[in-house]
Amino acid sequence: MNEFELVAEVRTDVGKGASRRLRRDGKLPGVVYGTGKAVNMITLQHNAVMHNLEHEAFYSQILSLKMGDEIESVVLKDLQRHPYKRSVLHVDLLRIDANETLTMRIPLHYINEDKCFGVKNGGGVISHLMTDMDIVCLPKNLPEYIEVDMLEVNLNDTLHLSDLKLPEGVEIHSLLHGGDVAQPVASVQAPKVVASDEAEDAAAEEAAAEASEETAPQEGAKDNEN
Asked: How much is the pTM?
C-alpha cells in the first residue's frame, strides 16, 4: 500500500486575494477539518500535491499531514482544479478517527478480462458500467481499490453489485441506504456486427438488377407497338 505525506503550514491570511498571492508563489491553499477539532486554513506546496495526484491511491487512501511537530491522519475530500490549466486551486482534507467509519470513493480494478469465459469462448466484448464506488469502513480496513473478477462471466451475462467480493469490514455505501443489489457493474455482450463493404455492394447490385427487370419492356409489348 502506498504511503503519502503532506507538509502544511497553518495560514491566517485568508480570502481570494490571499489565495491568489499564494498560488503566484507556487503554494496551494487548503483546509483541514473533522474529528471535532478546530478548522485549520493551511498552505501546501503545489508541486508536491500535483506529484501525488499522479498516483491513483492518493485519492482514496489515508494521508499523513504534518503541521509543525504534529502529524494527523487525513483523507482527500475535495479538490478544486483550474478549469483549463494543469493546476489545483484548493484542497479539502478530512481528519479521521480510527474508531469511526468513513465513506470513500474507491476505484474498481477489473481482473481476468483476458481469461473471461464470455470473451474466450463466446467472442464477447466486456463493458465497464462502473469505474468506482462509494464504500463504508473503518480506516484500518480502507482498501486501495476493489477487484472485479471477470473470469466466470459468460456471454450475455451481467455482473451486479451483489456479485462483488468485498474485503473484510468493507460495505457498499448505496446498499446500506436501500440501493439496488442488482445494479450492473459490468457485462459481456456479443460484438455489434457491421456489414462489410462487399456485402453492401452485393446488396446494391442485386437491388439494381431487380429494378432493371421490373422496368424492362416485354417482347409482346414491343410487337404491339410495331
From this structure: 0.80
Residue 20 DSSP class? H
Same domain, 29 and 57: yes
Q: Which three cell numbers stand for residue 151?
A: 473470469
State the DSSP H helix or E strand holding residue 210, giving kind and residue range, or none if neither.
Answer: helix 197-215
Higher-confidence residue of 205 and 15: namely: 15
Helix (H, G, I), strand (E, B) or coil at 122: coil
Whether residues 108 and 184 share a domain: the answer is: yes
Decide if 164 contacts 146 (C-beta within 8 A): yes
Q: Are residues 79 and 11 in the same domain?
A: yes
Residue whose grid cell is 419492356: 217
Indicate whether 90 and 109 sit together in one domain: no
- Cell representation of residue 91: 484542497
Confidence at 199, pLDDT banded by 50, 70, 90: low
Last residue of a domain, which of 37, 61, 95?
A: 95
**What is the sign, positive or negative, of the torsion defined by CA atoms of 190, 180, 168, 37?**
positive
